[in-house]
């Protein structure tokens, strides 16, 4: 029982971060109509930036905010410089560009900060709670809370501000939005920036658990896609729930399925992706007509 | 053009055969790997350049061919050539099964399935270490030079791969210009167009994925025999990305391009040691960006001179002809 509770909590915490990265993918997908293979690599870069700022003496939360700002600018810049020129090209071209982004960013991170894994201290302190024979760490609770806060903030921005209204309008129908006076290209840039900032939060909060290394978030790529497919691309809350389902089911798979072990971590998300795409392509919470292909 | 190509091909094949006795074993070993990967990239070209679909899972399919060949030669004592043929068939069947979802899902969703395949394959190889040797790898049986020919093992593998590549290139060109090949082009341009021409996009997708997988298995088997020991790291997701980039760098459609792209991913790592572990990847990324944006930069320069209107609209839905019509109408007025 204690083991079950413990696996549930750690699954929820890691699932929240998967969901956060999935929300970043979803934001980009809705704006640009493409899956950004490089999102994980960008998140890793953001985690390194935060770590670097901390090494130079900044307190944790200041370096967190600093990294978020830099990441936002980076995402905005990438949309402007790399994605905009190929926006009208076939899907395949944009996909290849984001794959190049994955390789390029990972290589640059490795060149700047090296390939050795860096241990990162927990951003929420080392407190540990004992619930029966289960052990819950402050890191896990803090990560889950951060995921929830990010979801709420994003929801408020998208549904309670005029900026969010404009963003949703240009994602839904770029041409009509442009006719109504929305600066749609600015909305695209902001969308990429927001996505990069969300990814940054996911990267920074994952770093203490997975240790900082250039391939850190790329290893989570498949789980992130599984969360996205599960939740349905159009629904941010759905993607978050998808992330939690993937995180928890992978953790429970580790514990209770003899076939699944540390070596075969990605079998569960792979099966999830296959099953959902074949049985319910729009995802659990997505709209039928929302998907583009 | 037609006649010159007819002469050029035998001359090139002859030249490649003569190289066997000119180059050192190390150079031949590299060329062998180029040839084996070129076979895989040709299969990928059929899928990407002609059908317009993407596969991030060809490393896994190569792995099925590679591991299949090694397992058959070492555990079942099947002679090398038969092992490769059997492994190719097995990969083709695997490809058809993986391709089945393409009947229902296409585009990005299908790319996700192939991505999952690439990530799960090495994990499964490690998991079933009893069969595959796990992370330590599985040594392949040495390749025997048949008929008592006075060749080293490397020279023999090189000749086998050179001839195989020639056959595959010939087949690729035939298929690409056949009715089936043009059907694939129709699917890429528009699925409605393909449907109205009597080409089922779903069926074409599954079939092409099977053919592409068979080539991946064939190339993978040859690659593996020249490589020696099979390890899960060889067939990781990054190999898939390298293959996709080889296809893009070579232009995605032609046969020569596939060979150039394969040569690039074999030789590039030799020159990027100073850039760190991911040096080759950085070079791929930069080259991809150059390939993708090169044409775009030219267009932009032209736009400066006022021949192309780039501010037509930001909507992606209108087809290319419609946009060209708008642009030319704007010019005329």
Number of helices of chain A: 11
Helix content of chain A: over 70%
The number of distinct helices of chain B, counting runs of at least 4 residues, comes to 14
> Could you tell me the strand content of chain B as a percent range?
under 5%
Give the SSE string of chain A: HHHHEEHHHHHHH
So what's the overall shape of chain A? globular
| Strand percent estimate of chain A | under 5%
The rounded distance between the terminal residues' Cα atoms of chain B is 40 Å
Main sheet of chain B?
none
Summarize the structure in words.
The complex is a heterodimer of chains A (293) and B (333). Chain A is mainly alpha-helical and 293 residues long. Chain A contains 11 helices and 2 strands. In chain A, strands 1-2 form a two-stranded antiparallel ribbon. In chain A, α5 crosses α6. Chain B is mainly α. Chain B is built from 14 helices and no strands. About 7% of the residues of chain B have low confidence. At the A-B interface, α4, α7, α9 and α11 of A face α5, α11 and α13 of B.
Secondary-structure map:
The complex is a heterodimer of chains A (293) and B (333).
Chain A lengths: L1 H31 L6 H17 L4 H24 L7 H23 L14 E4 L2 E4 H23 L1 H11 L1 H6 L4 H27 L10 H11 L4 H21 L10 H13 L14
Antiparallel strand pairs in A: 1-2
Helix pairs in contact in A: 1-5, 1-8, 1-9, 1-10, 2-3, 2-4, 2-8, 3-8, 5-6, 5-8, 6-8, 9-10, 9-11
Chain B lengths: L1 H18 L5 H27 L6 H18 L4 H20 L8 H20 L1 H4 L20 H24 L2 H11 L1 H6 L4 H27 L9 H13 L5 H13 L11 H26 L15 H13 L1
Helix pairs in contact in B: 2-7, 2-8, 2-10, 2-11, 2-12, 3-4, 3-5, 3-10, 4-10, 7-10, 8-10, 11-12, 11-13
